[in-house]
Design goal:
This is Proteinase inhibitor I42 chagasin domain-containing protein. It contains one helix and seven strands. Strand 6 and strand 7 form a beta hairpin. By secondary structure, it is mostly beta strands.
Length: 126
């Protein structure tokens, strides 16, 4: 039973980490007031997501929170949600980037960077 549990936990950690390094593209309706970036996270490992860089003239970071997984497995990863609000009265470019870093605070050299490309789209008025 312990071997089976160990195999399950190992496969979960591989799945959780598989998407960490992938870059993401997000389409955001420029007429909306906010948008959310959702990233796989597992704070039980000591790793945390941090917003490193974004254009503060276009939007602001409103909040961030972690949602734990629906499973009770020890060490299972969940998701981190970052909510950004669009600054009103701005002319939005076709796209911009947000840079996130996934790292442990005590290991400066052991981090993963994720680039999120935000494409601003305009929804036609009906």
């Amino acid at each position: 039973m312990n071997i089976l549990l160990g195999c399950v936990l190992m496969s979960l950690s591989i799945i959780v980490n598989a998407g960490v390094g992938d870059d993401v593209t997000l389409d955001v309706d420029a007429s909306q007031s906010s948008f959310v970036v959702q990233l796989a996270a597992n704070p039980t490992t000591g790793f945390q997501w941090k917003v490193v860089k974004f254009d503060k003239k276009l939007f602001s970071l409103l909040s961030s929170h972690y949602k734990k997984p629906q499973t009770n497995l020890i060490g299972a990863g969940g998701e981190m949600f970052f909510t950004f609000t669009l600054n009103k009265g701005k002319s939005y470019p076709a796209k911009t980037n947000i840079v996130f870093k996934y790292a442990r605070s005590w290991e400066a050299d052991n981090s993963t960077v994720k680039n999120v490309t935000v494409n601003f789209v305009k929804t036609p008025k009906s």
